[in-house]
Specification:
Elements (H helix, E strand, L loop, with lengths): L2 E6 L5 H12 L2 E3 L1 H12 L3 H8 L5 H4 L4 H18 L2 E4 L3 H5 L5 E7 L2 H12 L4 H23 L11 E4 L5 H13 L7 H13 L18 H4 L21
Parallel strand pairs: 1-3, 1-4, 2-3, 4-5
Length: 248
């Protein structure tokens, strides 16, 4: 089954590439809205609260209502559950860092030069001032870098993370789609018994916790039995404000 992770830059037209792949491969595209809904149910809070937290727009009072360790833990579990079901393209959410050790997972980065991204963002948002678009893109990139570094201990701009990097300024969207589709047909990225085992091992590594050990700050809404099956550790300095929002 096909599993693709996509890291895209704001204004790079990664959404267009993802939509094209969904159409030709018949796979599901998972983005933040889908994951937010599942996370909200597991944390027993409103979906809008999770969205504001992830986008850095929560008030100080609201920030106390979100168990940040549980949020990061459940996010990782969601990613692995999606990968185990297969036939999916996961946009962002640190999926590349979490899944790149699995042989049949295709890791793709969609990018473009800053000026091209500014033009795209201005056109899509009907902006007339390039400075506004430039500021939004730079803030987005900086926040993305900090969040990935703290949650995944990695750099999302590291070239070796990706099997394919697509520059949409020079490469047409349809060509980008065709290049990724070609990888899905390559024997090197075919799912095998060994690659399925690797995925299960990676998933289990984040779920198995010594019996009886509880994560710190585990509130009453988080059932002990659930936590007893996890080994995933979340950094203490998970970003909580707008400047350091989690943009996966």
């Amino acid at each position: 089954m096909t599993v693709i992770t996509m890291t895209r830059e704001m204004g790079s037209r990664g959404k267009d590439v993802a939509s094209g792949l969904a159409e030709v491969l018949g796979i599901r595209v998972v983005h933040n809205e889908v994951v937010e809904n599942h996370l909200a149910k597991r944390l027993q809070v409103q979906e809008s609260l999770v969205h504001r937290y992830l986008e850095g727009g929560m008030s100080v009072l609201e920030n106390w209502r979100v168990n940040k360790k549980a949020l990061a833990l459940y996010t990782a579990e969601e990613i692995f559950e999606l990968a185990e079901h297969g036939n999916v393209l996961i946009r962002g959410w640190g999926a590349t860092q979490l899944l790149r050790a699995v042989p049949h997972v295709i890791c793709v980065r969609v990018c473009a030069p800053l000026n091209a991204r500014i033009e795209t963002l201005m056109a899509r948002l009907n902006l007339h001032d390039s400075k506004i678009a430039r500021k939004e893109i730079r803030e987005n990139d900086a926040a993305h870098s900090r969040a990935i570094r703290r949650l995944c201990q990695g750099n999302w701009q590291e070239p070796c993370l990706y099997d394919l990097t697509l520059n949409t300024e020079r490469t047409p969207i349809q060509t980008c789609v065709d290049l990724v589709r070609a990888l899905t047909e390559d024997p090197a990225f075919k799912e095998t018994r060994q690659s399925r085992a690797a995925l299960k091992i990676e998933a289990q590594r984040r779920r198995v916790r010594p019996e009886g050990e509880m994560p710190p700050d585990c509130g009453p809404s988080h059932h002990p039995a659930r936590w007893a099956h996890s080994s995933y550790r979340v950094p203490e300095d998970t970003p909580t404000n707008r400047e350091e929002r989690e943009l996966f």
